Amino acid sequence: MSQVHTMGPDFSRSRLFKFIAFLYGMASYLIFFATILYTIGFVMGLVVPKTIDTGADTPGIRAIVVNLLLMALFAVQHSVMARKGFKAWWTQYVPRPIERSTYVLASSVCLLLLFWQWRAIPAVVWQIDDPDLAVAVAMLSLAGWVLVFLSTFLINHFELFGLSQVADHLVGRRAEPQRFRTPLLYKFVRHPLYLGFVIAVWAAPVMTVGHLLFSAVITAYILIGIHLEERDLVAAFGDQYREYSQRVSMLIPWRKTW
């Protein structure tokens, strides 16, 4: 059992711990924010020193294996740490106010490792030669990233990434109980955030084998993640969420099956 847990609830309520927890949450958020900005550059091939199509020249099969292992590490961390059973065990050792920040930090570290060790597979699957059409497709990818950010703010961006929890803990404010809401975009699709990711990774003027592998695995992971997340949402909101899922499509507006 960890030292923090052994110290018990009095320690977690101390002013010093509250302040340290807040700084930890802020640092985790800033690392996440830098990571997601790098992700945009990595996928779109913009600004950052290493993109999805640059890096060491690695034989094809080995590059695929390395990349799949890197994405699997992220997927396992991101999914397992989000499950209620894991949280119930994990918060025996990690204080609840920083549980979400720790999750966000771990996700960022896994992504940064992926960017660092990613093996480019530059063979071209498709390439748009018309410059105007290529720009339009790139703008569509950028719109996907905007949709990702917008979706987080429509629900609760700062709670999603752990800032609300450490801020509430710092000032001694009780968090509001979770309630079911469907703001704006959520009236058209149940998962606009995931739709944004799908658009962002697939809208590429130049699609290489490496980019295609990344996009295919991310899409598969999103579909699995939706299944797990919706199971939790049904457990939390019951018939309210079941009725919503029957009425609103999963990813594609106006197609109830998807």
The gyration radius over C-alpha positions equals 20 Å
How confident overall, as mean pLDDT? 91
Largest beta sheet, briefly? 2 strands, antiparallel
Q: Roughly what percent helix?
A: 55-70%
Number of helices: 11
- Determine the N-to-C terminus distance: 44 Å
User: What structural category do the secondary elements indicate?
Assistant: mainly alpha
| Unreliable stretches | 1-9
Taken together, the total number of domains comes to 1
Number of strands: 2
Strand content: under 5%
Question: Layout of SSEs?
Answer:
Layout: H1 3-12, H2 15-44, H3 60-80, H4 84-90, H5 99-117, E1 124-127, H6 131-155, H7 157-160, H8 163-171, H9 192-202, E2 206-208, H10 209-237, H11 239-247
Helix pairs in contact: 2-5, 2-8, 3-5, 3-10, 6-9, 9-10, 10-11
Task: Tag the structure with descriptive keywords.
67% helix, 258 residues, mainly alpha, 11 helices, single chain, two-stranded antiparallel sheet
Short description:
With 258 residues, the protein is an all-alpha fold. It has eleven helices and two strands.
